[in-house]
Design brief:
- This protein is mainly alpha-helical and 205 residues long.
- 66% of the residues lie in helices and 0% in strands.
- It is built from nine helices and no strands.
- Helix 4 runs parallel beside helix 7 and helix 8 packs antiparallel against helix 9.
- The longest helix is centred in the first third of the chain and has 24 residues.
- It is elongated and about 60 Å long.
Length: 205
């Protein structure tokens, strides 16, 4: 069966969008995520500012594309790594890799894991790769017996909290990434304990 030929105009448009998103990341590194200038962005990709709206109708639409692109970067990064073998070691490696990924690019970390842009909510299409990331994380947790919703919440909070600390206090480094093994072991210790009711009974009147 002969496949239909790709529309060269669509290919050029997609390539231009990719160029714009790449330039937006560079400007965000220079000026901050919330301070991207559409005028500077247009100039960086050889467009006049009004022409930029042919590709993105608003700055929020640009952020939407950056959000999706950031998660696609993360998924490709994880695809290049091997999480087979011992489940506990795989989870340690996953956490360490995520912290190093965040450490490598603070602006990208802010886009993916912090709500720093007022009014921005990712579209369902942009949010889809983040759900795939969550699915992979939950699957690795399940391999070590972390399945309860409360324990998954704790894992998410621990992972994100350590990533925030890494980016805020040692960007580009590995200080918190080096604690990945201890963090996972602490979580496993808690998750494997029998559930206890910590609420004290109310005194009778």
């Amino acid at each position: 069966m002969t496949l239909p030929a790709e529309d060269p105009r669509q290919k050029r448009r997609e390539a231009k969008i990719a160029d714009i998103v790449d330039a937006a990341w560079s400007l965000a590194q220079r000026d901050g995520l919330g301070a991207i200038s559409l005028r500077d962005l247009a100039a960086a990709v050889g467009l006049r500012q009004p022409s930029l709206y042919v590709y993105f109708g608003s700055k929020l639409a640009l952020y939407d594309a950056m959000f999706a692109d950031g998660y696609h970067q993360l998924l490709r990064y994880l695809d290049d790594r091997d999480y087979a073998g011992d489940p506990r070691d795989a989870l340690v490696d996953f956490v360490r890799d995520l912290l190093l990924f965040s450490s490598a690019n603070a602006v990208r970390h802010q886009m993916l894991f912090q709500r720093t842009l007022p009014g921005f909510e990712p579209s369902p299409e942009a949010y889809a790769p983040s759900l795939e990331f969550s699915r992979r994380a939950i699957a690795l947790c399940a391999e070590v017996g972390i399945t309860a919703a409360a324990d998954i919440d704790l894992f998410s909070a621990l992972m994100n909290g350590m990533a925030h600390q890494q980016v805020a206090n040692d960007p580009g480094g590995h200080r918190w990434a080096d604690h990945a093994e201890r963090a996972v072991d602490m979580l496993l210790t808690v998750a494997r304990q029998p559930t206890r009711n910590t609420h004290k009974p109310k005194p009778k009147p």
